[in-house]
Amino acid sequence: MQLVLATNNPHKIEEIRALLAALPITVLTRDDFLEFPDPEETGITLEANAEIKARAILEATGWPALADDTGLEVDALDGAPGVYSARYAGPTASYADNCTKLLEVMRDVPGERRTARFRTAIAIAWSVDEVEWVDGEALGAITTEPRGASGFGYDPVFFYPPLQKTFAEMSADEKNVVSHRGRALAAAVERIERRLTLSS
Ligand code: IMP
Q1: Which of 5, 83, 120, 187 is least enclosed by beta carbons within 10 angstroms?
Q2: pTM above 0.90?
Q3: Is the dihedral of CA 153, 184, 45, 28 positive or negative?
Q4: What angle do CA 71, 73, 74 make, to 5 degrees?
């Protein structure tokens, strides 16, 4: 089986490749194709955006495609930035800009109200008529200042209580075990394994 990862983000490609490494499948990425669409994420849910990306890559490459969409949902902000996490501080915002804006908006929010979750939705487009979804989440809290240098995105401001570290203070392996994407991918691996069993 060949499966194309429908993402342009090198951090994600690395994380997802590690998590799919045990499966008897060939994982393809944008580097394996001359043309690789980057569709606009016009959905209003994570699931809808994941489906848009997976379908676009399936249609362009002819191979089954796996896409993920992640959002940081902050309780004190009624679930924002959520599906708009990438563009929170503006259309060209860097990861640092987004973290700075979040810490600024949360400046007066007391500790017990700083709870948040990362949520990842994954869509696997097996064919035009067959798409399935899984999701995963990680519960934590927004820090008052950035901590740690690993990872990407909001990792330096997302504190994970069970390990008493931000995601940016964890190794890649530590993060993969507990992260939203790691959990969603574990569920995706089960679906892929089931598919392999059915087709063998
Ligand atoms: P995407 O739509 O899945 O690319 O994710 C949207 C935004 O969420 C990204 O631009 C990052 O800012 C953030 N994000 C996604 N995954 C993670 C993660 O694992 N850690 C920290 N931030 C993330």
Answers
A1: 187
A2: yes
A3: positive
A4: 145
Q: Which of 195, 179, 55, 32 is nearest to 127 (CA)?
A: 55
**Number of neighbouring beta carbons within 10 Å of residue 31:** 7
The position carrying tokens 């994954």 is: 122
- From ligand 1's centre to the CA of 69, what distance in Å? 8
CB 155 within 8 A of CB 166: yes
Q: Quickly state the pLDDT bin for 111 (edges 50, 70, 90).
A: very high
DSSP 8-state secondary structure symbol assigned to residue 125: E
In this structure, the number of other CB atoms found within 10 A of the CB of residue 26 comes to 11
| Cα 106 to ligand 1 centre (Å) | 19
**Secondary structure (3-state) at 19:** helix
- pLDDT-derived band of residue 15, with 50, 70 and 90 as boundaries? confident
List, in order of start, the domains of the chain with CATH numbers. Answer: 2-199 (3.90.950.10)
The pLDDT tens digits for 77-96 are: 999 999 999 999 999 999 99
Residue type, 176: N
Half-sphere exposure (Cβ direction) of 82: Cα atoms closer than 13 Å: 12
